Structures are given as C-alpha cells and as structure tokens.
C-alpha cells in the first residue's frame, strides 16, 4: 500500500478507515482481521480446523472463551506488540532511528501480558482451552516478527514458549511464512 491505494475512493468503500485488510465475496464486504476470520469460519464451518471458533462441542462456554482471549489479544497484546514490531522491524527497514524508550516501555507492557498468558497456559494447552483456536492464531503475525527480533520475550516463559513452539509449527503457518519469504515478482 506504499502508493496509497488504501486511501482511494474505491478502497474506502470496502474499508472506511482506509486500512488493510478488507475482504469481499459475493455476499458482503468485511474489514478488520478478526471479523474476517470469524466470517470465514462461520461461512465455511465444514472446511479446515473445526475448532477455530471454539471447542469441538461448539458450546457457548468454548465460544465465549475464544471471544474472551481474542479480545485480550486485541486489547492487551496488540498495542505493545505492534509498537515493538514497528520499532524493531519497520523503523530499521526504512532507515529511521529506533526509539529506545518506546522499545523499553512496550517490552515491559508486553512482558506483563505474556506473564498473564504464561499463567493461563499453565492451565490449558492453548489460550481458550485445549484446542487451537482463532485466539491463538491471531498472535502469529506479530509474534513471528517479535520472536525473530527478541526470542527471549516469549521463550523465557515456560508455558508461553511451549505454546509458541506449537502454534508456530503448524503446517498452515509454516506455509504463510514460506510465502512471505518467497522472492517477489
């Protein structure tokens, strides 16, 4: 989006905030990554991982647990992790100077979040229970960059480290990483 296509009138019809992502099919247009994931899971419940929206029983408690931890990801994990991804990956990529104070502040905030996760992951295999769900999947993009820049944030915590190793080793995620690393053009 370096050329500003995301601010064009046509794109703003799809995503009124002029941000990525936006998803369109024959039925509707959906924006915001978590909403897109939920839409796809609900539209194609017979495809892929049957537990992404909640445990195999599909009950209210398992769906609520997924929603709860997906909200925790959006409200608690994303703010400091996105600030760190910006400082550790994008700032150097564009040749700018990193802000050590912003890095330190957001590492401390993220450490607090990961401490809560470590406690939770001592009680269950994944954040929302014993099945891999959207609540786990949502952590992969920022987590991948952060682990490559500062592995200790995740791996110094026993349960977070175990969880990260498991979710980041999933074949579908490995394929995403492979596609991202493939030469463009």
Automatic annotation (TrEMBL):
Gene3D superfamilies cross-referenced by the UniProt entry: 1.20.1050.10, Glutaredoxin (3.40.30.10)
Domain GST C-terminal positions: 59-185
UniProt keyword list: Transferase
Domain GST N-terminal intervals: 1-48
Reaction(s) the record says it catalyses: RX + glutathione = an S-substituted glutathione + a halide anion + H(+)
UniProt-listed CDD domains: GST_C_Phi
EC number in record: 2.5.1.18
Gene Ontology CC entries for this record: cytoplasm
GO molecular function, one term: glutathione transferase activity
Single Gene Ontology BP annotation: glutathione metabolic process
PANTHER family on file: GLUTATHIONE S-TRANSFERASE RHO, GLUTATHIONE TRANSFERASE
Family from the record: Belongs to the GST superfamily. Phi family.
Protein name as it appears in the record: glutathione transferase
């Amino acid at each position: 989006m370096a050329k500003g296509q995301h601010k064009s009138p046509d794109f703003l019809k799809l995503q009124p905030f002029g941000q990525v992502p936006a998803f369109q099919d024959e039925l509707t247009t959906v924006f915001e990554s978590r909403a897109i994931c939920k839409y796809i899971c609900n539209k194609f419940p017979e495809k892929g991982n049957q537990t992404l929206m909640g445990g195999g029983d599909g009950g209210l408690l398992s769906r609520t647990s997924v929603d709860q931890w997906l909200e925790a990801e959006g409200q608690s994990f994303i703010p400091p992790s996105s600030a760190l991804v910006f400082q550790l990956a994008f700032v150097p990529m564009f040749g700018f100077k990193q802000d050590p104070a912003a890095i330190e502040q957001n590492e401390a905030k993220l450490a607090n979040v990961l401490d809560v996760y470590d406690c939770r992951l001592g009680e269950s295999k994944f954040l929302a229970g014993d099945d891999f769900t959207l609540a786990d999947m949502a952590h992969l993009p920022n987590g991948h960059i952060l682990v490559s820049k500062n592995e200790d944030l995740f791996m110094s915590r026993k349960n977070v480290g175990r969880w990260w190793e498991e979710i980041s080793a999933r074949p579908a995620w490995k394929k995403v990483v492979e596609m991202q690393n493939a030469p463009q053009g």
